[in-house]
Amino acid sequence: MSISNVHKKSLLGSAGIVSGATAFSRVLGLIREQVMAYFFGAGMATDAFLTAFRIPNLLRDMFAEGALSAAFVPVFKEKMVKQGDADAFKLADVVITAILVVVGIIVLLGIIAAPAIVYISANGFTEIPEKFALTVSLTRVMMIYLLLVSLSALVMGMLNSFGRFGVPALSPALFNLGIIVTVVILYRFFDQPVYTLALGVLIGGAGQLFIQLPALLKIGFRFKPIFNFLDEGLKRVVNLLMPMIVGLSAGRINILVNTLLASFLMQGSISFLSYAYRLMHFPLGVFAVALGTVALPTVSEMVARRDMDGLKRTFDQAISLNLFVVIPSAVFLAVMGREVVELIYTWGAFSEAHAANTSLALLHYSYGLVGFAAVRVTVPFYYAFNDSKLPMKASVVSVVVNMALYYPLIKVLDFAGLAAATSIAGLLNFAILLYYLPSRGVSFSLGRFGLNVFRISLASLLAFYAAKLFPVSLYRGDLKVLSRLEGLLLPFVVAAIVYLALCAVMGVREVRDISRKLFRRTTGG
Q1: How far apart are CA 317 and CA 331, in angstroms?
Q2: How far are the Cα atoms of 80, 159, 161, 193, 299 from residue 69, in angstroms, in the given order?
Q3: Would you say residue 412 lies in a domain?
Q4: 198: pLDDT strictly greater than 90
Q5: 295 CB contacts (<8 Å, ≥6 apart)?
Q6: 453 Rama sector, left if φ>0, alpha if ψ -120 to 50, beta otherwise
């Protein structure tokens, strides 16, 4: 029997590997957004593309990365631990075959029903027939992406179960690269240049899958179609998957409602929210998603071995590391959002007015980042216990609250009210999951958790307040990019130094742990 060595690696070390690869992917993602902003700005074409892409992207979250891999990994990992690699690979054969059949049918139905889907999800577009028609056409082009990303997510889950985190975490870089290269090279050859974005999605999705295949072959997997929809392992995956889909469906329906409401607001509202969401998603993806990715196979193995003490230690370490990085990231986006938006987006067709509206949306996404990130780290502990029902219920409750907040917050904040409602709901979702976690056998000290949140929050606020007061300006030239870069990086460096110093003084454990790990690497210990 071959057992994965995930448990032999520290959570911090494994998360560091995933974070590094993910950071590279996210940088390419920001470059992708810059390319889109430069060539298309924030108007009809970007609203149409973002709405069209949101539809297969929402299905991706439900059937692929958001649910399928989370349902598959605990069952696959248990088979590895208890029965060996051969039985685990057989389960993978069955699940891949089912994906090809089921997701293939969903893709065909999506292509046929594209006009109805766009009518429901962005009804405001019907007032501009060419915008509606363009969105329908782009939706049909990009539906095939759902099949590519579903297979990619399953391969990622298999590699993660074998302790291979680097290549899967790097695979989204190919997706971003596909879009960037396609737009830059083919933009001038299309009467409707926005189609280069849709084509790039397909090219990037294929790259995201194919880059992982050599690593899959190295662990010994060879795909053989097995049409067995009554397989016991597949049934367990489906039983885990269905509550996840219900919970994710609630959240995704909420996003569709968000899009629908934004389609009635000022021109560009969907684009402002999307650009801001991408910026918020950078720290979320680089660290919180990395921790969640590493935690799922790790805690699944601990549950299979009934290592409850290990589970408690792992949760404490994961949530603490998460907060240590995410809270200052949220403060950074709130305090310096305008500088970030101007550096990354305000070029070409993207105007100063676009920047002001995008940074307003970013401000109201920033505090939600803490909740979104904490949910990503906490949910795997439920999934490892084969419990996908409570996360589903928490998601449904948070979505109901989110929708209830839409009307009053839009009245006060216009399109930014949509971001504010989403952020409040994300914090509520985490609070529910944290409250019920001890009932699943993962206990923690609420007092110590609260104290840690207070210390990190205070250190973050003081650090960025000090950075805002930092008077030094080193660059005196006329190059706008260097001026903007200095205006962002100098305060960031000051804030980072002050933050780490304050955390050390306040006794935040993560500073000590990271320092110890860096010292061991430096000395070769």
Answers
A1: 22
A2: 16, 11, 11, 34, 15
A3: yes
A4: yes
A5: 11, 314, 318, 377, 380, 381
A6: alpha
Task: Give dist(CA 491, CA 475) in Å, integer.
Answer: 14
Q: How large is the average pLDDT for residues 399-405?
A: 90
Same domain for 465 and 440?
A: no
d(Cα 355, Cα 480) in Å, to the nearest integer? Answer: 15
For the chain, the average pLDDT equals 84
Number of domains in the chain: 2
Domain end among 408, 425, 444:
444
Q: Are residues 509 and 399 part of one domain? A: no
CA 130, CA 333: separation in Å to the nearest integer?
36
Q: Residue 90: give the domain boundaries.
A: 6-444
Burial bucket for residue 228 (CB in 10 Å: 0-12, 13-18, 19+): middle
- pLDDT for residue 477: 58
What φ, ψ does residue 11 adopt, rounded to 5°? Answer: -60, -40
* Residue 110 belongs to a domain: yes
Q: Which pLDDT score is estimated for 66?
A: 58
If one counts every other C-beta atom within 10 angstroms of the C-beta of residue 217, the result is 11
Query: What separation in angstroms does the CA of 498 have from each of 287, 460, 487, 515?
Result: 21, 9, 17, 16
Structure tokens at 264: 């009635």
Q: Are residues 276 and 295 in the same domain?
A: yes
- For the stretch 72-87, pLDDT in tens is 888 898 888 888 889 9
Whether residues 460 and 422 share a domain: the answer is no
Residues 366 and 509 occupy one common structural domain: no
- pLDDT band at residue 448, thresholds of 50, 70 and 90? confident
